[in-house]
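User: Fold this; C-alpha cells only.

Assistant: Input:
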Amino acid sequence: MTILTREAILKEIEAGRIRIDPYDPARVGTASVDLTVSRYFRRFVGWKPIDLHEDVDYRDPSITQLVEVPPGECMEVLPKEMVLGITNERVGLPDDLCGWFDGRSRFARMGLLVHISAGFMQSGTHNNTVLEIFNMSPRVLRIHPGTPICQFIFQRTEGSQRHSGRFSGQTLAVFCGEEEGPPAP
C-alpha cells in the first residue's frame, strides 16, 4: 500500500491526474488534502423503518429532508444524531489512484465522526462526496459551512481500473435532488 505524501500529491495535481475543484493549495497537508463541508445537509425524518435494498435512495423525502444553511449560520447536530453533508470540493481520481475520507483529529476529539463506514473512493471516480456525519458527544455540535471538516488520503493502486458505480459522478446538484446521478451499473 502506497500513500501519497505532499510532494506526490502536488505532482499529481500539477499533472492534472488528481482534480480538486475548487482547489486551495494551502489545504494540502503532509499526506492528505483537507476538504470543506458545503452549506447543504440532509436530516433524517420520520420514524418508519428504512428498507435497505439496492434501490434505496437517501434523497427520498420519506428518509431525509434537504437543509440549506443560510450564510453566516451553522448546522446544529444533536447528540447521537446523524446527518448527511457533502464536500464543497469535487475530487477526481485517475484509474490508478484511490483513497478514503477521514475525519480531522481536532473535530474527532469533540465527538464528530464524518464517515461512519463508507469513506472509500474508488479509482476513476470524480465527485463531491457525501459525508455520514454523526455526533458522538453529549453536546450539540455546530457545523459551519466552509470548515475543513475532513481529509482525503490518496493511495496508489496495483493495476488500473475505472469505477462506474451509482455515485461515481455525484455532484452538489445530485445531493440536493436537482438532478439524477449516473445510472446504476
